[in-house]
Structure formats: C-alpha cells, structure tokens
Amino acid sequence: MASPESAVNGPTMTAGAASKSLRNAFGGVIAFIILVLIGVLAFSIRLFSVIKYESVIHEFDPYFNYRVTQFLSKNGIYDFWNWFDDRTWYPLGRVIGGTVYPGLTLTAGTIWKVVNSLNIPLSVETVCVFTAPIFSAFASWAAYLLTKEVKGPGAGLTAAALLAMVPSYISRSVAGSYDNEAVAIFALVFTFYLYIKTLNTGSLFYATLNALAYFYMVCSWGGYTFIINLIPMHVLLCIVTGRYSSRLYIAYAPLVVLGTLLASLVPVVGFNAVLTSEHFASFLVFIIIHVVALAYYIKGILSPKMFKVAVTLVVSVGLAVCCAVIAILIAVVASSPTKGWSGRSLTLLDPTYASKYIPIIASVSEHQPPTWPSYFMDINVLAFLVPAGIIACFMPLTDSSSFVILYIVTSVYFSGVMVRLMLVLAPAACILSGIALSEAFNVLTRSIKFQLPGIAGNPSIAVRMWRIMSTSKENGSSTVVAPNDIPKTEEAAKEKPAKKNRKKEKENVEKKPTPSKTEKRLLVLPLEASVIAVLLLVLLGAFYVVHCVWAAAEAYSAPSIVLTSHSNDGGLHVFDDFREAYSWLSHNTDVDDKVASWWDYGYQTTAMANRTVLVDNNTWNNTHIATVGTAMSSPEKQAWEIFHSLDVKYVLVVFGGVVGYPSDDINKFLWMVRIGGGVFPHIKEPDYLRDGQYRIDAQATPTMLNCLMYKLSYFRFVETDGKGFDRVRRTEIGKKHFKLTHFEEVFTTHHWMVRIYKLKPQRNRIRGKTKKSKSSRSVSSKRDVRGKRNPWH
Amino acid sequence: NEQLAIPQLRQSSYRHETPPTNPSRRCLHLGYFGGKRLHKISWSAPKPSPLTRSAPMAKLAIFFTLTLSLLPFLSHSFSPDTPTDRRILVLLDDFSLKSSHSIFFTSLKSRGFDLDFKLADDPKLSLQRYGQYLYDGLILFAPSVERFGGALDVAAVLDFVDSGHDLIVAADTTASDLIKSVATECGVDFDEDPSAMVIDHQGYAVSDVDGDHTLIAADELIRSDVILGKTKIEAPVLFKGIAHSLNAANTLALKVLSGSPSAYSANPSAKLSSPPSLTGSAISLVSVVQARNNARIMISGSLDLFSNRYMKSSVQKAGSPSKYEKSGNEQFVTEVSKWLFHERGHLKAGNLRHLKVGETGEPAMYRIKDDLEFYVDIFEWSGNSWEPYVADDVQVQFYMMSPYVLKTLSTDKKGLYHTSFKVPDVYGVFQFKVEYQKLGYTSLSLSKQIPVRPFRHNEYERFIPTAFPYYGASFTTMAGFFIFSVVYLYNK
Asked: Where is the composition biased (Basic and acidic residues) (chain A) (predicted)?
C-alpha cells in the first residue's frame, strides 16, 4: 500500500516546510495502518459463519464453483477449459469450460497453487471458503483508491471503512459464500478506480491497467456489462457537458478496444462482446468520441469562421450517416426475437418483463425487486448519507465526481429492479457516504479548530480545505471547470509524457489555493453546533457498525445447507438433513444413477452426492427444466413415464412440513407448474389453484392432490402426527392416506426435509382386464402373505 | 461390468450351502447371478476384449479367469446360461391324469426334465425352500382346484413367475376362480360365464360324438417357427374347453392357437339368449405370455388338449376333405413346451463394446464426429449349447432421448455383430442401445452409456483458407499502425 503515502506526500513537495512534510508523512503512515486495519476488519467480520457453523461452502451456486475449482486443481487449466461435464443436465451434458465465468475459479485455483507451492497444505475447500473475505478486503482498498481519486484520502478511508462492513456486500461474501460476486465487486470497484485514475492523469499506463482490470471483471461476473455501459454513459455525459479532453479520450478509447478484445477471449463471452446489444452503447460512444476529438482537432487548426462552415458541413453529412447507421442497427437488432437483448438484461430495463414472459428468471428469489426494508437492512444509514454525498460531489463537480454520481444513480435504479444488484449499489453508496461523512467532518472539525484557542490560524488545517473554497469561487466565474482540469494553454502545448503532465497539474493545483486562504474563516460554524454534530455523526457511525456486526453475525452467516433453530429453553437445534440425504445418495446409489429434483438442488447433488442430475442452478435450458416441472406437476403414471424416458432412478424432493422449513418444494411448486406449463401447455396453472388460491388442504383441487409433488411430499406424512398438519402452510393436508403406485420411498431424512424416492421397475406382467375388484383383493392378500412369509415370526 | 467379480465371490458361500438338487446335471456356467435372467449384464470376458487379442495365450487367460469367476455357480442348475428348465413341478387334480396324459409327460422326461408330480391340495406343497426355488417350471394341470395346499397360493405362483420361472396353466370347463385369477394376473381373461365352452359349428371335429360341436379341430396357429418349430403342424389340433381373450394392449401375450371366425363362447346345453361375449378370432384357445423378465407362460383353455386320447385320435375337420390319422396335438404340445421351457428362442446378448477406429481399448468418452466401431455378441440357446444367432435385423441405436443413429448390424455368423458409424455432430450423454424384440424370442435390451464431448480448443482447424482476408487485414493494420506511429513520432 504505497499509494496512500505517496498521495499524502504529494502536496509536501511544494509545501516546503519541514514540519509540514513530517506531519504529512505521519499522516501517510497512519492512513496505511488504518487501511490495514480496514482490511482486517473486512476479513474478520465475515468469519462469523465459520465460527458459528463450520468451514463449509454455502448455499447452491458456491457448490458448483467449488466443484469446478476442485476439477481445476486436479486436472489443470486446459482440461478445465475443455471440460465437458456429463454429470449435469443429463442427457445433454454441459460444456463447463465454455459456459462458466472462470475468474473466481482461476483466482481460487491460483491461490491454492501458490499456497501449496509454499508448502502450506491448505485444502481446496479451505481456499474456496476464504476467498470471499480476502477479496472483500481488496474491495475495501479499491474503494479507498477510488474515493481518494474523487475526493481525497479522508473520504477514501471513510468509504473503505464503510465498504468493509456494508451488510449488502457481507451477504454475498461471508466465508463460504464462494460465488462470482465475491471477487467481482473488487474487480468492479478497481476497474472504476483505474478509469478515474486514467481520467485524472491521462496516462496510457493506467488505461492499459484499466483494460486488464476490465478483463478480470469480464472473467468474473456477467455484471461486467454494467461497467461497459456505465463508462460510456459517463463519457457521453462529459462530452455533452463540454468536458471533453484528451484525458477522457485516453481513458475511454483504449478501454473499448483492448477491453473488447480481451473480453472476447473469455469463452463464455466470446463473440457476444461485439454481437449483443449490451455492448452497443460502448461502440456508439466510441464513434462519438472520435467525432468529437476530430472536431476539437479541426477547431484547433481552423479559423473560427472556417470552423463554423466546417461544422455545418460535417453536421449535415454526419447526421445523414448516423441515420443510415442507426437504421441498419435497428434493422439488425429487430430481426432477432428478443431484440438482441438477453432475458436478464431486458429484465433490467423493463422490470415487468420477466414476470410477463420468462418465469424461469422471475422464479429466482434474487431476481425479485427488493422491498423498502431490504434497503435499510442492506445499506442501513448509508441510504441517508448518499444524498449528502451527491451534494458534496456537486461542489465542485469534476469528471470523477460526476462519474460517482452517475454510478450511484444507475445502481439505485438497478437495485430497484433486482434484489441481487443491491450488491452493485453497495460500493456506490459506501463511496458517496464516505464522501459525505468526510466532508461533514471536514467542515465540523475545521470549525472547532478555528474557534479553539491556540489552534486557530494553523496553516496545516488549511491544506485540507482549500479545494472547496477555491473551486467554489472559481466555479462562480466559470473560467476553469475543475481544479484538476488542464488549462487550455497547456493542452495546446501538447505535453505528451503523462508524468510531466501530472506534475504540472499538481503544481498548478497547489498554486491556486494560496490566495483564497484568508476567506475560509467565513465558512466556520458555531462551536457548540459543530461539537454536537460531530457527536451525532459518531453516534450514527456507531449505529451503523452495530447493525453491520449484527447482520454479519445473525442474518447473513447461515450456510443454508445446515439450519439451526433455537428451542424455547435456549438450546440450539441443528438440522443437517441436506447433507444426510446427499451422503445417503452417494453411499447407496450407483455411480451412474440419475437423480431428478427441482433445479435448486442440482449443484448440491452433483457436488456433494456426485450423482448425475437432470437440471441444475445453471438454468440455461428452459425446456429441460420445464420437463422436470411437468413431471412434478403430473399424476404419478405420467411422471413415471417422463422420468423413465430420461433414465431417472431416484427423485429427490425437499419437504418442510414437518419442521416448518418454508423454502421447500411445495412452496416452489407453482413455479414448476408455470415453467412446465410454459413449454407443455397441458399443464395449466388454474388447475392447481382453488379460486386463485394456492392451497393443499381439503379445499385443494384434485389435480393438485394427485400431482407427483404433492404425493411425494406428503406420502406417509399423516404418520408423523396422526393428523397431517403441515407446519409451513399451517393447515391440515387434503389427502392423507394414499399409496404410491409407481414410486417407492427409499430414504427420508431425520427431519423429513429431504425425501428420496425410487422409480419402481416396469411391471413384469401386464394384467388382464377383468375382475378388477378381485385383483385388488388379491394384491392386498399378497401383501399380507409377504408379511407372514418371514420365517422368523 | 467388470465389477461383477466381487459380488460373485461374495455369493459363493451362499451358493454352496444350497443343496444341489440335481447333482447329475452339474455343469459349468458362464456366470452371473443365478435364478434371474439378467440380460442387461454382459457376459464377456474381462477387458481387453477378445476382439483385440488373438493369441492363444490370451484365450487361455480368459478361460482361466472365466473358470474362476464361475466357481460359485457350479451347483446351481438353472441360470441364464443354461436357460432350459430342469426341475418341473406338476400339480394335478388327481393322479389319474398322470397316466391319461402320459405321452406329454414322457416326452418331457425324455427331453431330460425331472417331473415332480403332486396333488394340487397336497399340504406340503412348496415352491421354495430357504429362499431358493426348488423348481424351474410349474405345470398346473389342476383346473378345478379351489385352494392350493401348503404354502402355495396365487401370489406365490406369480412370484415364481416374476423370479423368472415358467408356467403352464391348463383350464377346463371346471376351471376354478383360483386358476382363472392366475390367468388374469398373467394377462389372460377367461370367459366369465362358468358354463360356457367354445362352440364352432363349422370348425368342429368330425369325431365329435356329442354333437354340440364343442370338440374343435383348430388350425389357426400362430405363424412362428420359434414357438411352433420348423416342421409345419399339418393336422388340426383337437380342443375342447373354454375360451379366453387377450387385452389388445398387452404386448406380452400371444395367441398361439386361436378360434376360427365362426367360433363363439357359450353354454352348449342352454339356449343362446343373448349374443355371446367372445366370438370369432377374438377367442384364444391357447396363449403364451413372455413376461418382461422372459419367464414364459402357456395358458390353455383345455386340459384335454394334452391328453393321450386327443393326441392319438384321428382328426377330420368338418367340411374338410383331408382326414389325418393323428391329430396335431402331440406335435403342437411338444413344440410349444420346447419353446416354453426355453429349449428354443432364448437369446442372450452381451459383450457390448465399442472402440474408436484405429484404436484399441474402449474410450471413456467420444468426441463429436469420431468414427467408431460397435460390436455385440448374440447367441441362441439350442437346448444344450449356445449357438451363434444369425439374423439380419438386429439394430443398434446411438441414443440421446431419441436415436441419432440407427444402424443394422451385420453378423459374421459366429455370433458377433458389428457395425461402424460416425458420431453425430451433437454432444451429450449418449447410449448404445440394442433393443431387439422379435416374435417368440426373448427380448434383448442392452445399453451402455457413453458421453460425447465437443471439440477441444485446439482441435479446431487452425488456419482456414476463407479467413485469409481477415489475417491479411489484421496484419496490414498492425503494420500500418506501426509505420504511422514511427512517421508521426519522428517526422518533425
């Protein structure tokens, strides 16, 4: 962490005074220590899950990532790239190497390799569990760098501290939550930092780094489209507001060219980087920035009069060309059914799109729009600080602060569409809150210092605050747009080397504030108000910390494969049914047996039970999922036929009715009906609803009571309490005593949370038609005889 | 399939404890689990497959391993590898049937079967002891029995069938509910009217003395050499008994001897008040059922069909000029019983293997567009040895939800079937499937899972001619940019 030191040391070069330079060096060391502590905080606050539960991979998707990482560490990168997985999506299989974002896997794989080559024998699982906390520390540091570029180191440190413990980010990066987002948020913030850095310095070096960071982001998460749309938006904003500069060009053009080239190297993106609508904005802005650059260049070499003529000429021709290009683009895009946008992106633009057309996207809980309380839960006091931060960014409005404003505005919109994207909002909220807090403390502490005897007039305090003063003054006259904008004269001189440029800037920046020093006393607040405000802000921060620690410890640390409940006497009860079921499968079934379940449990089944599944959480094939949904919503015989045609041996259902586990298959069942009905129209949702209500009690429809999901969930359920009272739906079930004809129960876990059934083999004989009544009697007698035949009784 | 070796050894102690019921017939089995006919299991020698090795040494080694793995099966007389039944329990209403049907029984004995005659209500009746079946086949010549003796009941009979054993049921006008329910469970519905018989006013036998045309000279035989033998049954078959029908949806049951179009089922002594429920060729006189586990069942509406009297009597069908000295009964019964007790029409397939053209050894995974060769062995049981099965209609499917490749296999007439094809341009988890269902033969259903992967990243063509303009474009752009930079930077 050399950057904080250098950054703080920067001003000292011109300041001159030895005591001042010493003080700044001291500040740098403190900043460094604070940053290290922030990293430790970010890491350690995420360890609650390990301490409270165990070092285990969480939830669903992380199990897949873990399995992929295991494969990578075992077989090497080329086999990983070419991995054709025949254990999922039976019988289609899945080309893992070409359909997965490899960033997370490669990161953890590299860490594992490095650690092992240092003779530290960590297992792959351990590395995977702790990847997310490590990268959240990195993300905090990246937030520091980004905010420092925008508003100086003080705001940076505050933002880093806030990001280290923001609950929204914790929810996705506790130890064990080994998911793409864990590294992607770091990559996102770091890419933005490098963009701002390039924008501020105009250095090609940073531009190249920016493209590389963007590449890492593309490797890690599908959310990279956010970057490649946000940055063009910002560039466009700068151009429109007359802030075009060569630094903007350097920040943007290499990113588009290099970034697109690099992105298309990632197998899962490939030609999408130039073919899908998500990327078109960047190319459009790329064209625009070149046009603008050309215009500025021509303006420079032509006389004003000639320039006017040229402008009219170019604008008329340009408009014609633009119209033609846009027409072609629209034609190309319109020829594809989804208008070239993928379903998930369309959901972002039109929040009702998914619920209207794609039940498979709408059915995922993290794709739902968030509720208001979830904002308070996930970003807490930041929600109130963000507006203050936005105001702070407007005075003065610089290239970088306008970027941050744009970032917060877009991410607020996206988070309102999908609860998952709250994660993108979190860094933006932290950065702006950091700015707000730091500015507030700046003003308040300055007020206190000026009014305390013996401190007033200390020149060192002034160093911090010259910016606001000077720029706000200068903004009024609107001669210079931002303090770190290069004056036009310098631009004309074409100072090429970036370093020199930067130095000049700094000198330029340092020179300006000196005349306005005397006026700062005018902005001083009353002493009492300042002290109280400082105390209140500290209190606010304390509340935030308390909330974050609570969220990390209680709300977001449950691994979801192990559940706990507190009994009335304070004891802890652990439900470990999932692992019980998966280990039963791995020990009692054949290696090549196929297990059918709803797709939620696909990743866990392949990773933990090592059995082939039909569908899993990578929901790429709607038809296949619909087939399973249809089977689950069909009567036993039809379901048996569907499963038999897919070589299924076992069916796994999750049932919470005994212990009151609400996210079980019965509660997800309507989605199965909808998704199944979307492809196979004979499954109709109204058949499963009584007067529009979803119910499983005596009022339920016959279709509902006879479907496979109901039967597999409630088979023998009445034996538990004699009444068949479902503790999730809080009602007695409709059909209590029934037999299964085509399935047989083979395993039910301790708390009945997972039930595994086996498909019965086809009957050896086909019965004759007549004497049905008699045959049923003979069947029952058969059962009795079987019972009696045991020689030991 | 190689993993079978261990379960076999584990079973060995168990196998040796079971009393060898027929020591004289001990023989070597190529072995898998006895009792059940598991055709999905290949019976091949361990890898590498004999195809790829030809040296006698290899054969010796294979023989040796085979012998070792077969030791546990020495004492068991019925197995998929000698599928012919050996021990047969005959249940009779009374022992007089033993002499009145002696021709049938003698022919069975002469073919090497051990017949165990018991009365159907014998209180010590039991099909199994210590979980092992004592018999391989069951003949129910007791149409009127209401209750079996001992531990035997309908469920036990059906379990016997479901564990792969064969059954002959002969009914009569006196057929009890018990016999009828056994038939129903096997997919054969006898006429519900207890007094009904098959009457045919055109196809009756001239020797019918009663004059009510219930003695039928039936000649509507199934056309299947496997079931009825190669020599055609010339003389009509004498039949006197009750009719049954088959569910059309039942793919397992076959009418071997069906009624003529003029036959119907009614009470011969009563006046026909309503149209008979069973008429014409819907009537089946003798049916066979081959269950899914290849257990075979024969159900006859007439016990007299098997009797010496019918076998020896001459026959002339009404309205037909040709008179036969001997009825077709003996030949019919003998041939059907040969089929029934697996002396004929029993196939086994196995040693399903495949390899990439030009390679030895079975790959674990294919790539799309690979060329592969497929082999399978099919043999037919001739009664005392396995003979190569020769047919030109065996097909293999390369199957993923639907067959992507369907090829007819060619045979070398030594039991080896072979074909070669190109893997389709679709990746996924495929199966080699041999589904062979031919009338009268045991159904073969083998499958072997094999994944097919797409190209690896370095298996695509590296330089394709159509892309040369693009290569040219990119290299000229690079060169142009370089020159431009040099000129721009140093040209001042």
From this structure: 487-515
Tell me the pLDDT tens digit for each residue of A664-688: 899 889 888 988 888 899 888 888 8
In this complex, which of A82, A767, A781 lies closest to B187 when CB atoms are compared?
A767
CA distances from A320 to A295, A312, A316, A467, B64 (A): 17, 13, 6, 45, 87
Residue found under tokens 């304070």: A570
A454: left (phi over 0), alpha (psi -120 to 50) or beta: left
Q: B3, B165, B184: which to substitute to probe chain A, counting the most A Cβ within 10 Å?
A: B184
Please give the DSSP secondary-structure letter assigned to residue B49: P
Q: Do B188 and A768 touch (CB under 8 A)?
A: yes
The enclosing H or E element of A180 equals: helix A180-201
Query: Is the ipTM beyond the 0.85 threshold?
Result: no
Give the sign of the dihedral formed by CA A350, CA A351, CA A355, CA A361: positive
Query: Which H or E element spans position B466?
Result: none
- Considering only alpha carbons, which residue of chain B is nearest residue A762? B292
DSSP 8-state secondary structure symbol assigned to residue B236: P
- Please tell me if residue A776 touches chain B, with a CB cutoff of 8 Å: no
| Helix residue spans in B316-420 (DSSP H) | 329-340
Question: Whole-angstrom Cα distance, residue B41 to residue B2?
Answer: 10
Q: Which residues pair with A757 in a beta bridge?
A: A651, A745
DSSP state of B409: P
Per-residue pLDDT tens digits for B465-475: 999 999 999 99
Distances (CA, A) of A448 to A453, A528, A529, A531: 10, 8, 9, 7
Helix axes B177-185, A772-789, angle to 10 degrees: 90
Question: Residue A531 and residue A537: Cα distance in Å, rounded?
Answer: 10
Contact B453 A82 (CB under 8 A): yes
The closest of B199, B144, B200 to B172, measured between CA atoms, is: B144
pLDDT band at A277 (very low <50, low <70, confident <90, very high): confident
> Residue B60: what pLDDT?
54
In this complex, do B189 and A81 lie within 8 Å of one another by their Cβ atoms?
no
Calculate helix-pair angle for A61-81, A124-151, nearest 10 degrees: 100
The reply to whether the predicted model has a pTM over 0.95 is: no
On whether the CB atoms of residues A701 and A393 are closer than 8 A, the answer is no
| CA neighbours closer than 13 Å in the CB half-sphere of residue B8 | 22
Report the Cα A518 to chain-centroid distance in Å.
48
Residue type present at position B110: S
- Say what the alpha-carbon torsion angle B472, B478, B483, B489 is, to the nearest 10 degrees: 170
User: Is residue A744's pLDDT more than 70?
Assistant: yes
> What pLDDT, on a 0 to 100 scale, did the predictor assign at position A113?
94
Phi and psi angles of residue A707, each rounded to the nearest 5 degrees, phi first = -75, 160
Asked if residue B74 lies in contact with residue B386, where contact means CB atoms within 8 angstroms, the answer is no
Among candidate residues A747, A680, A752, A739, the one with its CA nearest the CA of residue A711: A739
Q: Do the chains contact at A768 and B251, CB–CB below 8 Å? A: no
User: Is the distance from CB of B373 to CB of B420 less than 8 angstroms?
Assistant: yes
- Asked if the C-beta of A767 comes within 8 angstroms of chain B's C-beta atoms, the answer is yes
